[in-house]
Amino acid sequence: MKILVTANLVPFIHGGATYHVNGVVDALRQAGHYVELLKLPFRFSPEADIARAMKHASSLDFVQPNGVSIDRVISLQFPGYGIAHPNHYAWVMHQHRAAYELYDPARSTPEFDALREQIIAFDNASLTRARAVFANSGRVAERLKQFNGIGAQPLYHPPAHTGHFRCDDALPYVFFPSRLETLKRQHLVIEAARHMRSSLKIVLAGDGGQRKAYAALIERLGVGDRVALIGHVTEEEKRAFYARAQAVVFPAFDEDYGYITLEAMLSSKPVLTCADAGGPLEFICHGDNGWIEEPAAEALAARLDWIAAHPRETAEAGARALETWCSADISWERVVQVLTAA
């Protein structure tokens, strides 16, 4: 089958979306399909560029470009699912979140309100034309139903390097690898350190727009002896930190899916998350394979102190986390089967 996969090109910004895009392309090729990846340039600002990107995507007709018949188009990101093709599948990572669950009318502008109406109309028209609509998590499917009235089937996929995660004897620290951005809420963990009574260390890995702010917060709160902001780590280093951690912390706000949860489970580590975390809540059961706390520094601090005081129970929760992963039956083989079904 000739398959065109569409995604976005956002220069020098890499994250979970990059693994998702590369993963599905590789899986489809390994299954014997002839696959091309089309990346559409995308910028979050100025807002006029978003309107132009939607118009450009809508103008693209891949029914038979240059006389070549394409059997199926699979679009992963906004606005690529506006491309015209009679056998178009949308596998939505997330929509343009600023127009949906992150929209705040009190802080908006008339210009963005007008753009938001365009985005919602574009999504409604594009996704209802698609032959099938999938979401990369149950949470993303919930948003599509809530905001657009569109039903989507959750289709889960594994993180990169699935077979390379491991579990070693734990050291007295918790691990939080992620981009340093406001929605990931590293600030909650840094603030929690101020309230902790145990000597448990917190290792924050990753880089991003909030690095200077978080470094300043660590200094201002005087928790530099407890919180390590270590910056970028390689994939191999990340897996080593997972392997030795007592637990993994992931308190992000309304996450779409959350590779960190899956990587922790693959490493036999329980996850500490929050009640409004979104995607991670689909895998974490409080008190069984992790913990779900209120998004407050004091609540996180109390649980982190509990983890420090209960290493055996924490390790047992990690073993159950691995069992959760094994029972979930998440694989690229299943993804390919679903996306290439007649």
UniProtKB/TrEMBL annotation:
<protein>
    <submittedName>
        <fullName>Glycosyltransferase</fullName>
    </submittedName>
</protein>
<keyword id="KW-0808">Transferase</keyword>
<feature type="domain" description="Glycosyl transferase family 1">
    <location>
        <begin position="172"/>
        <end position="316"/>
    </location>
</feature>
<dbReference type="InterPro" id="IPR050194">
    <property type="entry name" value="Glycosyltransferase_grp1"/>
</dbReference>
<dbReference type="InterPro" id="IPR001296">
    <property type="entry name" value="Glyco_trans_1"/>
</dbReference>
<dbReference type="Pfam" id="PF00534">
    <property type="entry name" value="Glycos_transf_1"/>
</dbReference>
<dbReference type="GO" id="GO:0016757">
    <property type="term" value="F:glycosyltransferase activity"/>
</dbReference>
